[in-house]
Amino acid sequence: KDLLVLQRALRNEVPNWDPEESDWQLPIIIEQFHHAKVAPYLPVKRHFVDGPFVQHQAANVQLRLTRHGGCYDSGRSYPDVIRERVLDLAHAGTSQCQIAIELRVSRGYVQKVLQQYTHKNISIRSPRTSFFVPKVTNEVLEFMSVEKIIKPSIYASELRERLLLDGIVDADDLPSASQINKRMRRDLVMSKKKLSVIPSESNTPEQIARQDEYLNVISTFKPHQIHFFDEASVIKTTGNRSYGNATVGEKAIEFQRYASNANFTVNLLHSLSGLDYYNILDGPSNGFELLHFFEDTVEIQRPDGSVLLERGDCVVMDNCGFHHGLFVEPVLRELLNDYGVQLIYQPPYCPYLNTCEYCFQLKEFLRRCHILAMEETKIAIAE
């Protein structure tokens, strides 16, 4: 009823019609409605008037015209009174085409209302199953990309807050967390992966100065003269897998070895040529094991007859506690100096400066070969 009165008023069929004095809840479209007859749609603002109370509620309107001269708001349903009028005319024997012409709606709308009434025996419209999805603009994508580069672990909910607080979008156009995750995968081509953490302590002025000093010293050597040393600990349960499959709603349960008192330590020496030398210890390492490792290393010869550690080379290791032991460090330096090899320590909080970190992919391999890792851990480590 409201829509019919509005259409007639806009066609000047209702003289002296004032919507603010009307008792019905009527949308006030715009004064220049005649422009909508030329443009395919006309975005305007509408206000709702409800009896003596005026609600100053504005919403975007996409005003369009039907082929029969009626108007409708794109994306919004007709009032229920129009649906009831369609059913009344259909029960009176009026054809669908005639109903569409009389009510100035599309024939598809009339057909849809009648089909729903026939199949479901209801006259009210179906609940809305799809809702407005805010558009993610290029500006939003660029902002998301920068935030993810600065802090890859930031949550989608935190991104929503940043988008709103930084004024990138307003509250009405704020994308959901699921939409943010979807656009990151599809448009930014970002996937979920394990973080490679860099300690924030390494960014202090003192540590930066020590890193610069280390780089100045290490840059005096040729690449083939640098040998990196590091340790890694392995237990029998390292190969245990953490993820599995099960029916929805049920836990994934698997028998695995839980407790393990078997601990192994891998000592590794790595250089530009690849793996130089390694050994596997039963139990944890200590300063004496470190000295024994390098006593064996200085005696190793390559297949061509040259020694592994030549004069002018250097050995780089981290700042583990027993590496600086009271007797370990002086003895190790003296041992290496006898062979013309220099000992250099990495700056603290910089494990990424040791190439051995990129060789230690033991856990991934042990999970693939978990039976071998549980029964023959040493062989699995060597493989």
UniProtKB/TrEMBL annotation:
Q: Which GO terms describe its molecular function?
A: DNA-binding transcription factor activity, RNA polymerase II-specific; RNA polymerase II cis-regulatory region sequence-specific DNA binding
**What PROSITE patterns would the database entry show?**
PAIRED_2
Cellular location of this protein? Nucleus
InterPro entries attached to this UniProt entry: Homeodomain-like_sf, Paired_dom, PAX_fam, RNaseH_sf, Tc1-like_DDE_dom, WH-like_DNA-bd_sf
The answer, when asked if Transcription regulation is one of the entry's keywords, is yes
Q: Which domain of life is it from?
A: Eukaryota
Its main localization is nucleus
Keywords carried by this UniProt record:
Developmental protein, DNA-binding, Nucleus, Paired box, Transcription, Transcription regulation
| Cellular compartments per GO CC | nucleus
Residue limits of the Paired domain?
A: 61-187
Keyword match Transcription regulation: yes
Name of the protein? Paired box protein Pax-8
Organism, per UniProt? Acropora cervicornis
What taxonomic lineage is listed for the species of origin?
A: Eukaryota, Metazoa, Cnidaria, Anthozoa, Hexacorallia
